[in-house]
Predict the 3D structure of the following.
Amino acid sequence: MKPDILTITLKTGPAFEMVSVKGGEFEMGSEEYGDEKPIHQVALSSFYIGRYPVTQALWQAVMGNNPSRFIGSDRPVERVSWYDAQEFIKALNAQTGKDFSLPTEAQWEYAARGGQQSQGFRYAGSDRLAEVGWFDENSYGETKPAGLKLSNELGLFDMSGNVWEWCQDWYDEKYYARCAEAGVVTDPQGPAKGEYRVMRGGSCFSNADRCRVSTRLNDRPDNRWDFRGFRLALPAQSAG
């Protein structure tokens, strides 16, 4: 199915694409690792998510600099902290008049799994990571331009591998257990507070296990590494 794409045009700089994700219920998490347990039911409203991670060209157009180690206009921007991503989003919203944000952890996983079109893959679009992602066995230790591998069921690229992607949520190892006790959780925003923020997707330095759609990582929101980036989310009602 052809993805429903919203193209955002900036006053200066490249246009970028957001993919419509139709809301629905899904089983979030896995039974493989402690902080991915238990599998629990989540219901999400419709939203848009970036077709690609934010590229260096887009970051440069909005922020006027490029903090990345692995330079390339079509490569994901990296060496950005969670706070840096918030500053970028603030500037982008001022320029576009929209309400971009980081995806919540639930939005990210639902989109990576393919939303309502999910085929139940282990990675974002395939059970063979090499088809859809750059990881430690094929990246030669560096990021790659976004979109070179196959997309997932929704037409999203690079959700497994290339760069870890910041999510909006605080991290809590036991958060899933509380969600499971609550029954079906609608549009979860994550814990109310914490010390670390969630990241998803794995990177060009990660092994295959780290690139699964259910893998969770966390770090201090002020840390910057050359394998950390992000992609954008947008409420469906803010798309017009």
Q: What stands out?
A: The longest helix spans residues 82-96.
